[in-house]
UniProtKB/TrEMBL annotation:
Protein's name in the database: TetR/AcrR family transcriptional regulator
Pfam families named among the record's database cross-references: TetR_C_43 (PF21597), TetR_N (PF00440)
The keyword Protein biosynthesis belongs to this UniProt entry's keyword annotation: no
PROSITE patterns in UniProt: HTH_TETR_2
Ranges of residues in domain HTH tetR-type: 19-78
Highest taxon in the source lineage: Bacteria
Organism (species): Actinomadura nitritigenes
Phylogenetic classification of the source organism: Bacteria, Bacillati, Actinomycetota, Actinomycetes, Streptosporangiales
C-alpha cells in the first residue's frame, strides 16, 4: 500500500473515534449539567464519558465552551418545537402550553434553567441561537396577543423572566403541590382576563385593571414601581382627609 493511501486509511478510523468521543462527551455533559448546572468539574464529565481529561480539553478547551455546546443543542430542539406551533390553531393555548412545556423541561435540567435567565442566557448560547430562540418565542407571543389571549403590555423580556422564575417556584412547590400549578398561576397574570368563582361557584370575570379608591376611575397600571391607588391629587387629598377624620373619631 502506498504511503498516502495508508495515511488516509489510518485517518478514517481516527476521525470516527474522535466523533464518537465528542458525542460521548456531549452526552455525559448533558447529564452532568442537567443535574448540577455549571458547577460540575470537567474531570467529572470526562469520568462519566469514559475518556481522559485531555480528550475533553482537546474538544472543548473550557467548561464554558462545553456548556455552550450542550445548551445550544438543547435549545435547538426547543426552537424547533416553537416554530412547529407558529401557525397552529388556538394561538393562546399554544403559547401557554409551550411555556409550561419549557418550564417542565427546565425543572429537571439546571442547564436550561440557567440559560433561560436573561443575563445568563446571553452568555450560554452560541452565536445566533439567542436570536433564533427569541424570534420563535416572540412569534408565539405576538400571535397570542393578536388573538386577545395575552395582555398587550407584555413583551419578550417579561416572558423570559417569567419562565425562569416559574422554574424556581415550581421546584419550591413541587414537593407538596400539583405539577404545573405555579406556572399556571403565573400564566394567569399574562391573560387579559382571568375566570374566578364566587363562593356560590358562579363564574366571574376579573379584569387586570385597578380603580381609584375614592371615585372608582380606571387607572393605568405602571410598568414599574407600586401600582397607583388614586386617579389624581384631588382624590388623594380626599382619601387623606377621610383617614384623618376616621383617626380622630376613633
Amino acid at each position: 500500500m502506498e504511503a498516502g493511501s495508508r495515511r488516509r486509511a489510518e485517518a478514517g478510523p481516527r476521525r470516527a473515534d474522535a466523533r464518537r468521543n465528542r458525542s460521548r462527551i456531549l452526552e455525559a455533559a448533558l447529564e452532568a449539567f442537567a443535574a448540577e448546572g455549571r458547577l460540575v468539574p470537567l474531570d467529572e464529565i470526562a469520568r462519566r464519558a469514559g475518556v481522559g481529561a485531555g480528550t475533553v480539553y482537546r474538544n472543548f478547551p473550557t467548561k464554558e465552551a462545553l456548556f455552550t455546546a450542550v445548551i445550544t443543542e438543547r435549545f435547538e430542539s426547543i426552537i424547533e418545537e416553537a416554530r412547529s406551533l407558529a401557525d397552529a390553531d388556538d394561538p393562546g393555548e399554544r403559547f401557554y402550553g409551550f411555556l409550561m412545556w419549557v418550564v417542565e423541561r427546565a425543572m429537571f435540567n439546571h442547564a436550561i434553567c440557567e440559560a433561560l435567565a436573561l443575563e445568563e442566557g446571553i452568555k450560554a448560547f452560541a452565536a445566533g441561537v439567542e436570536e433564533e430562540f427569541n424570534a420563535a418565542l416572540g412569534a408565539l407571543l405576538r400571535r397570542a396577543q393578536a388573538a386577545g389571549d395575552v395582555r398587550p403590555d407584555i413583551d419578550l423580556r417579561d416572558v423570559r423572566a417569567l419562565m425562569a422564575g416559574c422554574v424556581v417556584t415550581e421546584r419550591l412547590r413541587r414537593a407538596d403541590g400539583p405539577p404545573g400549578r405555579m406556572t399556571a398561576l403565573a400564566c394567569d397574570a399574562l391573560r387579559p382576563a382571568a375566570v374566578t368563582k364566587h363562593r356560590d361557584e358562579s363564574p366571574r370575570i376579573v379584569r387586570n385593571e385597578s380603580r381609584c379608591e375614592v371615585c372608582g376611575t380606571p387607572l393605568t397600571t405602571a410598568r414599574t414601581g407600586r401600582p397607583p391607588r388614586f386617579c389624581g391629587p384631588a382624590c388623594r387629598q380626599k382619601a387623606h382627609r377621610r383617614r384623618s377624620a376616621a383617626a380622630k373619631s376613633g
